[in-house]
Amino acid sequence: MVISFILAGKDTTSSALTWFFYLITLHPNIQTLILEESFDLTGENLSTNIYQNLKEMKLLEAALMESMRLYPPVSWDSKHAVSSDVLPDGTLVGKGDRVTFFPYGMGRMEKLWGKNWSEFDPYRWLTVSEDKKKELAWVSPYKFSVFQAGPRICLGKEMAMIQMKYVAVSVLRQFELRRTTDEIPTFIPMMTSQMSGGFNVLLNKRY
Prior knowledge:
CATH 1.10.630.10; two-stranded antiparallel ribbon; heme
């Protein structure tokens, strides 16, 4: 299980962060709001009560989830049926059959995400209480299947989110990111998805 955490999490988190940083450069207003959330929670010292503060960074988590909706680290996956079954829509799945699902396609379906499915909108993942406190909205893992669902749900989901939050906020607090080109990068759906040519970016020190 520990080996799975390490191997499964290394490439997937780096893939997710690559596309996250790309989308953040397209939406500087979201970048500013993430920074404000970070400083409101921690002040200048990120290391103070870091685990709890990272968990409280709801907008950052929503932005990461929205990034993975559009550019999932694993764009497709398959399962094999141990025994025969029938899917909710009546489709028969025989014993030994391979069933493939496609998070990349599912994240771009108007039926699931509405007419604005193509927009990077972290607020689709948030609810705001009467006291203006942000909370993550519950989204079915069968709709957002990046971390899989049911008995096979990702064991390292929380660890991966904490890792990505820490890296993301550490980079954004120190540097302003600027793309070196306006060309739209190509999504490569390998075992772990990649960005063709990587993400070429200029880093400007903030302070």
